[in-house]
Amino acid sequence: MEKEEKKIINEGEEDEMEIYGYNLCRWKLVLVGIGVLCTGGFLLLLLYWMPEWRVKAACKRTALKGCEVVLLRTTDEFRLWFCAKIRSLSLEASPLQNPQSIADIVSSGHRGHLCDNSAEENKNDLNKYSTNIRYFTHHSVKYFWNDAIQSFDFLRGLDESTSCSSIHTEHSTGLTKRMHDYRKSFYGVNEIAVKVPSIFKLLIKEVLNPFYIFQLFSVILWVTDEYYYYALAIVVMSMISIVSSLYTIRKQYIMLHYMVAAHSIVRVSVSRANQEIEEILSTDLVPGDVMVIPSNGTIMPCDAVLVSGTCIVNESMLTGESVPVTKTNLPNPTEAPRALGDEMYSPEVHKRHTLFCGTNVIQTRFYTGELVKAIVVRTGFSTSKGQLVRSILYPKPTDFKLYRDAYMFLLSLVVLAGVGFLYTIVNSILNEVPANIIIIESLDIITITVPPALPAAMTAGIVYAQRRLKKIGIFCISPQRINICGQLNLVCFDKTGTLTEDGLDLWGIQRVENAHFLLPEERACGESLVKSQFVACMATCHSLTKIQGVLSGDPLDLKMFEAIGWILEEATEEETALHNRIMPTVVRPQKQLLPESKPATNQEMELFELSASYEIGIVRQFPFSSALQRMCVVARVLGEKRMDAFMKGAPEVIASLCKQETVPVDFETVLEDYTKQGFRVIALAHRKLESKLTWHKVQNINRDAIESNMDFMGLIIMQNKLKQETPAVLEDLHKANIRTVMVTGDNMLTAISVARDCGMILPQEKVIVAEALPPKDGQVARINWHYADMRTKCTNSSPAINSQDIPIKLVHESLEDLQLTKYHFAMNGKSFAVILEHFQDFVPKLVLHGTVFARMAPDQKTQLVEALQNVDYFVGMCGDGANDCGALKKAHGGISLSELEASVASPFTSRTPSISCVPNLIREGRAALITSFCVFKFMALYSIIQYFSVTLLYSILSNLGDFQFLFIDLAIILVVVFTMSLNPAWKELVAQRPPSGLISAQLLCSVLSQIITCIGFQTIGFVWVRRQPWYEPWTAQSDACNLSTATNTSSSEHENETLQDEHNIKNYENTTVFFISCFQYLIVAIVFSKGKPFRQPCYKNVLFVISVIVLYIFTFFIMMYPVESIDRCLELVCVPYQWRITVLLIIFINAIVSILVENFLLDTILWKVVFSRDKQGEYRLTTPQPPQEAVDRWSGCFLFSLFGCRKKIRKAKYMHLAQELLFDPEWPPKPRTTTEAKSPARENGSYPVTTVT
């Protein structure tokens, strides 16, 4: 058997997988066929559920190169298996290309892009030969064989390893028809096909679920055992469940299908290599096609990069941001003077030049008769929209301790069922029971132990929580995440639009003249400033556009433009077509803003001429980039020969690009003063361009050539007010021991100021700024530490550090007095990137107390969420959906404040743009989590109680009757389960957090104590009834209620009763156990239905209260006052009234014991004792954590111990780290010190550091 080493596909990607090759093996197939026949088809089911077993059972391992089947395994924590069949693609190829080279070209995407040189394909048209390319499809992505790497690789478009220059030089001419057809044979149809499965397919898939197979097995067993009514009821319930599930799944498929199919097939114009314009369907597009964007806009059917013209795009489908975005053509490095070198094209890096699939192009702008063209770079499922749809179609399983523990608990129930199975067999053999009865009854004990309604019961709480969230305006696309939100202990917030108001108000401006700041000015629309370069920059340096006559764009740009009171005019299509090189956008001041002219004969006419004489045309726009933190425009004042460059952005960035002699000496001081007060500050700069720069050259120039040697002009100060609800919401989260972190793209000092204003950082707490610098000029990377409040203090005095400056780090014996949050770290995105690369050991320490992360790029926000999750935080992320998509998706609970349904990346979307949704979501998550625990505990007790009832009755060769099972399962269990889940969430957040898993001391103690209690009282009833003076083995003639009439029973009645009671259902033990167990189900339902602190009290759950009361009254009534018809139906026997009182007394004592054990012994005494011990030996990050976390550590692993495992439940990493740092004298770093990295990373990733004062 040929074997090979393990191969990896999609290496480094989110969907990285191991791949193994297999070939079908005939003798293995024969053995599998025999096994299927022998097991009655069960082996086939098992192989259907387990892809790994299916492949290994029928195939033999071989090399990937010649395999027929591939086995795939994800490399993430879930380690999921998939299999796929290898297919072959027949195609025609030129003799210049051998099959191997074609495979290379296909798999590499860039290595020719299926022929980089269009001329090459025209040679030797007549001489062709066929070749086969091997591929397989997984999750809607094709993987082709690549001889170069001896593995499979997915087919890339022009989005990877393609240079910006080659896009202009090699790809902008378009494809020939033959090349187009050749590529289409590989890339296939350009569509994101969401096929709606037929009802039959969905039915088969649903029915083959292990849960329903177990149901089918149980029903067959019950029918064999003549439990017809119970079996029928379960069948009906299962059918209702299947129909409901099918309806929901099909509805979701249909919704997704129509969402994707809308505008997915349109007619588009493409430019061919011979300059002809051809109209084709969008489904025929392939990477390399040059698409002509219509002037009236379109819905993009693919991802494409603009090579000429400008587009106004609405990207709300992808980002949730409804503000129109301006897309400009990709700069051509070959035409740009002073080009810094050719860079590789990337849709993420060059997103300002990329039109994404599914986004709406509202309008286009073109110059000199040029068409607006875009080169197709990705099609189908490879596009940004396709990847989004794939994430919905093939979601990753939710990794949550609750679900892992649930499977473990079920496994323990199976072990318990095995014990009962063996007991039944041994007991039946000893009592000489027939073999067929032994088989049926021993298998029946398994169906009793594993509750069939458990999955439905577990999801009930989540469904109800989802409905409650919908009522308060929070919509959820991933219901399983609701439970996880109950565990959140850290929430990251975006600043602008989330913590603060979305809109900014212009507070004032502060201009610079001769490298000196002038006094702040409140208004920027004064007559003296109209023709100044400062106002010209405010008028031109923006991305505003008119859509249907209404000015729209970024809110900050809108406020800035409105503050100067200018007018924006855009050229119409007719004007653009008539004039050569017309200015696409013109801005000019209103007439009344211009300075008054000298008296003249016709003053009105002169004013008009003056107004017309001062206009500025925007020649070229370099849109705002989050990575660059600036934007730039090239403009020309009407009548002037030389053009102007205007730039605005983050003050630090703008100052670094200006001539140092134009930047005021006190620039940093003035900036710091504003940012400390919480203002958002934007800097402006200007530069007169060389006269040799013509209009055509400007259209192709690189922005780096423009954005240098600028003159610093001054600052715009914007006021960003806190939202009214922000401080109160953050205070609630802090009281609940939930950490809050700010992640923003704004200035650091502004962010720190806002963090203090909103209560994220308290007044007495210190902020340590970590300023990390990358290696430079032979120097190693280093981190400079200083306090935010001490940054500008004079440092020429003695280096001695005041003891008051050092954060207090106390060690107390009592956790209530322990405070470790006396200091916070703040850093910007650049420092964060350096620390991630050069100081990996510092990352956990910094995120432990990191509160402000400023100037963070979108991908850095995602990296921060990952870093927090790596130290075991349950992270929530709340943002506006624009730059936060990656972080929202990565977090355990991502909440988008966008009003649009576009934020598909986020599991939760709030229709109200307020962070008040965060505590609401956590409260509902906690309620849903506790409900899941309550239901699970109740279902566990239900199966154990019923299991023990049946085991007791098996000892006397009896059992529960058909209608007894029916009454317990339908009337009691089903009603109780679905009503006990209705408790709404508690009205406020508390410091205590619910346990994250079922294997915790709190839950195990609760379940075990109730099991012991219920088993004890059932045993008492069972044994006690057999010791009663009136007791005798029950026969059809027995009448314990009226012993004198016992002999009057006719022989015919005796025969009928005997025929009806072949299973020995009717007896005193059965009746006693039945009544005690019925009341026990109701007792544990009430005991487990806890309210405060996570849910409303159970008495507020009206349906549950009514259901329990009705069931109590009914059960009490049929026990105390027997009704012949009910007794006959439930197969109960009459017992003396005195014994009924005794049973009632047993039930009453059982209820008192259960309530006392749960609410007094466990919740009060045990928790206090254990938690007080915990306080002596543990130190926490914040004030006391929930008791269950303390108890969990000594609880160990009860269920694991069943299998001989002694693994101790671990404590969260951030808790270990907090405890270690308590005793670290070097932490936190002292102010005005530097930490240096001595050498590159060692193999273990650690860096030695040196602290220099």
Describe the 3D structure:
The protein has 41 helices and 42 strands. The two termini are 65 Å apart. The strands form seven sheets. A twelve-stranded mixed sheet has the order 20-40-39-38-21-33-37-36-34-35-41-42, with helices on both faces. A nine-stranded antiparallel sheet has the order 23-22-32-31-30-29-28-27-26. 42% of the residues are buried. It is globular, with a radius of gyration of 37 Å. Helix 7 crosses helix 9 (228-261). The chain is α+β, with helices and mostly antiparallel strands and 1253 residues long. A hairpin with a 7-residue loop joins strand 1 (7-9) and strand 2 (17-24). Mean pLDDT is 75; it is low at 93-130, 576-582, 597-611, 790-821, 1043-1060, 1171-1209 and 1241-1248.
Structural class: alpha+beta
β content, as a range? 15-25%
By DSSP, the count of extended strands is 42
- Integer-rounded radius of gyration: 37 Å
* Chain-averaged pLDDT: 75
Count of individual helical segments: 41
Oligomer: single chain
Distance between the termini: 65 Å
Largest sheet: 12 strands, mixed
Contiguous low-pLDDT stretches (5 residues minimum) are 93-130, 576-582, 597-611, 790-821, 1043-1060, 1171-1209, 1241-1248
**Percent helix range:** 40-55%
Strand order of the largest sheet: 20-40-39-38-21-33-37-36-34-35-41-42
EC number: 7.6.2.16
Membrane topology: Multi-pass membrane protein
Family: Belongs to the cation transport ATPase (P-type) (TC 3.A.3) family. Type V subfamily.
Function: ATP-driven pump involved in endocytosis-dependent polyamine transport. Uses ATP as an energy source to transfer polyamine precursor putrescine from the endosomal compartment to the cytosol.
